[in-house]
Amino acid sequence: MGTYLATSYTIRDRLLQLWNDTQEYYKKEKVKQVCYISIEFLMGRFLQNAIINLNLEENYKKALAGMGYALEEIYEEELDPALGNGGLGRLAACFLDTLATHNYPAWGYGLRYNYGLFKQSIGTDGEQLEKTDIWLDKPYPFMVENHFIRIPIGFCGTVEDYVDPNTKETKEESNRSIWKPSEYVIAQANDILIPGYGTDNTNTLRLWSARAVEELDFEKFSFGDFKGASEQRLNAENLTNVLYPNDNEAEGKELRFKQQYFLVAATLYDIIRRLKEQKRPLEELPDFSAIQLNDTHPTLAIPELMRILVDQEMIEWDKAWEITQKTFSYTNHTILPEALERWPVKLITKLLPRHMQIIEMINWKFLEKNSQVGQNNKSKELRSKLSIIENSWDTLVRMAWLGCIGSHKVNGVSPIHSNIIKDQLFSHFSSIWPKKFVNVTNGVTPRRWLHACNPKLSDLITSTLESDDWIYDLSHLSKLREFADNEDFQLKWAAIKQYNKKKLQRFVKEQFGLDIGVHDVIYDVQIKRIHEYKRQLMNILSHVYNYLQIKKMTEEEKKQLEKKVVIIAGKAAPGYKAAKMIIKLINRVSKVINNDPEIGDLLKVIYIPNYSVTIAELLIPATDVSEHISTPGTEASGTSNMKFVLNGAITLGTYDGANLEIIENIGEENVFTFGIKASEVSQVKQNNIEKGAWNLMPKSLQGVLGIIEEGKFGDPEEFRMILQELKGVDRYILGNDFTSYLQAQKVINETWKNPEKWWKMSIIGCAGSGWASSDRTIKDYAETIWDIKPCPLPKIE
Length: 797
Ligand code: 26Q
Prior knowledge:
It is an enzyme of class 2 (transferase). It catalyses: [(1->4)-alpha-D-glucosyl](n) + phosphate = [(1->4)-alpha-D-glucosyl](n-1) + alpha-D-glucose 1-phosphate. Keywords: Carbohydrate metabolism, Coiled coil, Glycosyltransferase, Pyridoxal phosphate, Transferase. InterPro entries: Glycg_phsphrylas (IPR011833), Glyco_trans_35 (IPR000811), Pyridoxal_P_attach_site (IPR035090). It is a single chain. The protein is an alpha/beta fold. The protein has two domains: 2-442 and 780-786, Rossmann fold (3-Layer(aba) Sandwich), CATH 3.40.50.2000; 517-754, 3-Layer(aba) Sandwich (Rossmann fold), CATH 3.40.50. It contains 32 helices and 22 strands. Strands 5-8-9-2-1-10-11-15-16 form a nine-stranded mixed beta sheet. Helix 19 (487-512) crosses helix 31 and helix 20 crosses helix 28. Residues 85-88, 91, 244, 246-248, 250-251, 256, 297, 333-334, 339, 341, 413, 442, 635-639, 657 line the site of ligand 26Q.
């Protein structure tokens, strides 16, 4: 620990200097910046990334070796902060790396949770167990508390009419009111410095933590009544205690809502403070900063900015609205209905009474302008479609609607997803504002996801291309295509995969005491949050089928088989019963298969617990086949699919999300595709409903379900819910895709027998992944949405 800390502090020192210089320079230049607000930032480990970005890895290696330490071992001592659930949070982290690398003036704003995503382990029955992740127990040198930045955030209370101090009159038409909160919590800034690769520019990720109000200098903020503040102390600190563990599901808890407001209120205060520091008027906010809302979680920023502009800064409503729309843009990451946030009007009225009024006013003005009030059904229908406020089981605020109406641009994260947004989810808005809806395809940082996690492949690419330019301009990878058939290159390429697989093999042995092969074994990996739409269930059921097939084979037939290690990892939200059952089933199946002497090393199924960024960095470079098998139309993009192709894994995928971009860019002949297209989904679902999924299910899958029901993997009652779903409606159409999934596996096994073909596909995949860099993504955002330009620190000669 000591060496790790000492090493880390030397890096932090350097970063602090660069960071100071960068911030001073941005201020001096008065450049437009982007603020990326996200309730999650899944950063991964810091030290290696920083050392590589500062181009100090060789120096540190040498220096530490001189003292008897191995840098790689020091890296392993670092904890991996889990301040995010999955794709959305990790995307935000990739963006920060790119923004710094390409010298964009940028800020990340998020929350410093006391506890990250729960730690997962697997119980003796194969079930998921959860433990609190008390990450702040250990020192974390890369985050510094900024003592100068403490901001009071109000909640609850009352709203009073604004009275003009001169005329003593209330003015209805001004739309102005005074909010008097009854509770305050302090937002404390904690800064993580973000280094770029090969540049001195160092940006800020500012994470807010909640503190009780007594610690504040009361006089400084004249907010009035602080009576009862001591009772609020515990409540206050509770606010940023825990990251909600749901991924792609909106949990309607009051505390979650408070977190969201806390994040945006502190952030807007901070942005406006910095604008005022430059002595610029609020009218200039859209030229000072673009603010990107990462999904709807920070959309309360829209009414909050309106409140500041109208109530505090005395700006006319219409002018304030123009500023607001120009400042914000919103990214949608999901169309799953259960993930679309809707908050009860009652709850908002209680916690943020003034904001509720503002949301109503925004809605009213919008509806006045865009829909005729008529009594006929058609105009009523249009109004209820457009309205931010929904009347269903309760009166609810649709946060995605608020995001659309309050932003100048709304983007999806892959072409198919953006089209679904434009033509289905928000079709009523896109006919009002056809230009508002755009696509910005996701990307991943090639620094962490190739250069750092797969150093041998990185070196091979650099020596082959005779340049390391690809690290910050990934389009250069296309030149690798020339080498796809080259025997010598293929051998080197394959040897690196082998090396990475050995590393993983050692890990599996150490962690689980399990022996897995490396030579001539296909490593087939599916790692992501466990969710029905991602169809891990289809994966495990297919291997139950394969297992049963092997059991029927003669020794001769078995000799013809390809060996496979199936690896699955990912957490289930603690309240998501079906997902937890899937984990249990995977572990039960794994136990049976791995211990069956008739199977030997033909098939192994391994569930790796406590999936994290760090584990991804180990698994991805070691993968031969990576699975991205969501029901078409459900996975907005996926980003690990990109990381895998970059590292030479071949995709086994459906026609969904960014898989489609992979197919388009590297050619379908280099991807193992299967299943139906998104356009066919509704028909299949309809059939399932009409005829019953069981009746349409292939015999192969029926047989597998039969075996589970016989109790082969323990009491079938434990899996009843997921079995019933499959036999009943089968919402994610596993039955329909099962046969072609098995067929794709056959094609994989055949292709594996032909190494030249295999490695050619693998190389072409990597060569065709230049587009998958988050550098390209950020350039798209900067040009089409944010209107910001790089601002590199001048080099000191
Ligand atoms: C909302 C309300 C209350 C509690 C939790 C939530 C919540 C939290 C996280 C809702 C959704 C999320 C996460 C969504 C997510 O990770 N989406 C993924 O975003 C990736 C980046 O764009 C895409 O690649 C994935 O396809 C998408 O699933």
